[in-house]
Amino acid sequence: MQSLRITIEPESAFGTPLKGDTLFGQICWMLFETKGQQALENALQGYTNNQPFLICSDGFPSGYLPRPEYPLAIYNQINGDRKQIKKRQWISLDQLSQPVETWLGLYQSDKDIINHAFSEQHMQQHNSINRKTGTTGEEGFAPYQMSQHWYADGLKLDIWLLIDEQKLSTETVIQLLENVGATGYGRDASIGLGKFTVSDSIVESLYKTENANTLITLAPSVLSGQHVNTEKTYYSIFTRFGRHGGQAIAKQKPFKNPVLMANTAAVVVPEKMHDQPYIGKGLGGSGELSKVIPATVQQAYAPCIKIHHQGL
Q: H-type helices in the chain, by residue range?
C-alpha cells in the first residue's frame, strides 16, 4: 500500500477528536457523495477480508508520534517529577531510531513542542429547540453544554494514510480529504466546527527498523484474531459509540452498535512479523454494526510503525 504523510492546519474548533476510524468514515461518505454509491462499493470490496482500500491514522503534532503504552518499568529511569514525566506524550520522528529503553528521556510534552497545550477543551452553551414548533418548548429556556476541542494557534497536524492505489488513486484520496476539511470533520460540522486545510502531502514510508519485533499503532484497532503475544502487548481500552454520518443522519436510528478497541499507541508484539504496514481488521458489512444500513463497515485497522525492542 502507498504510505502518505498528510499535514493539515485546523481552521476552527473540532467537535470530535481527530481519530483515524472517524476520519475513514467521513472519507467514505465523501466518496459516496462525490463519486456515487458504485464507487464506494468498489472501494470497499474485500474490506472485511484484509483488503482495505484506505487506512487512516489519528492526527498528531507535525513531526511527532504518540508515546506508546509501555509501562514505566521497561525504560531506563531518569530524574524528575513523576507527574511531569507522565505529561511527556510525544516522541519526535527523528528519535525513533534510539533504543526503546532510552525513550523516557526523549519524550516531549505539549509545551516542549509548541509552548502551549496541544489542544484545549472548552464547553459551548446550546439551547434545545423543538424542531416542529421552532421554539424552546413549553418549559422555555432549556440550555445544555457540548465540548469543543481547540488546537493551539499555528499548530500543524500529521495524518498518516495507507492507500491501495489499485482501488483508489492517491490524488483522489487527497481531494476527498480536502473536501472533508472544507465541509467540516465530526460533530457540529454544519455549524462551522472541524474545518481544516491540507497544507502538504508527502509519499513517506512508515518508520521501520531492522529486525523489527514490535508494532506501535497509530489509530484505534481490534486485535482479536491477530495472533499477538498477549503477555507482551500493552494497550488502553477505547469504546467507539459510532453514529452514521452524511445522509444517514436523517434516518430513524442513526446510532451504530458500540465497538471495543485497543486505543492508539498500543504496543503490539505479533507471534510472527509480517510485511503489511498495518494491523487489525475491518468490521461489519453484514448488519453487525447497523440495522439501518446493513452494509456499514468500521475501520478497526491501524497503521503501524515497526521497532526493535531488545528487552523482548
A: 20-35, 37-43, 82-86, 110-114, 170-183
